[in-house]
């Protein structure tokens, strides 16, 4: 039997009333939240396996928008079904074949074009969680239009040494108790980035935290985890503010 990839229970979640609205951009739907004043700075948020409709991810979009960024979470699954809590983990590998986080370039280009042409964005950053964290790592190697990136607990794929030649500053956030990403993998990532990366990067591991910890809404946090969740979110936003 395959171990469940995620320790956090997505079933027990409080509802969330969103502050933004949905838009259609070419072949993709997206959730957008804007600050109350004009800005030419934007952040793309890449959802996890539970998709762009999941309340946690919309909460994160609104949170980042509150810091003064046009924030957008596109449906990177292009209308296909996200992973559901009722699905069987035995089918997860097959589902992943049809939802490859390394194949997000076309959708990222569509969203970048929209942000530049429709929203007058001049500087654009990207953050992604889990599946989205893997997609961010991929895009920060491929797309120079992304000024800075934050990858939160994206599994570390090692297909080549090119995986460490980041184009722009990237911050990697991990949880110490994430059983999908071993400490050895994180150590190796650090060694390889030291060797190959020519831009600013940062790796930080948050004590006691499991996979998915940083996207919890305040009312869903356990008191012991709350300080680390808040710290991770502040670190994420500080990294964006440093470069965008």
UniProtKB/TrEMBL annotation:
One of its GO terms (cellular component) is cytosol. Gene3D superfamilies: alpha/beta hydrolase. GO terms for molecular function: hydrolase activity. Signal peptide: none annotated. It is found in: Cytoplasm, Cytosol. InterPro entries: AB_hydrolase_fold (IPR029058), CMBL (IPR042946), Dienelactn_hydro (IPR002925). Its main location: cytoplasm. Residues 28-242 form the Dienelactone hydrolase domain. This is Carboxymethylenebutenolidase homolog. Belongs to the dienelactone hydrolase family.
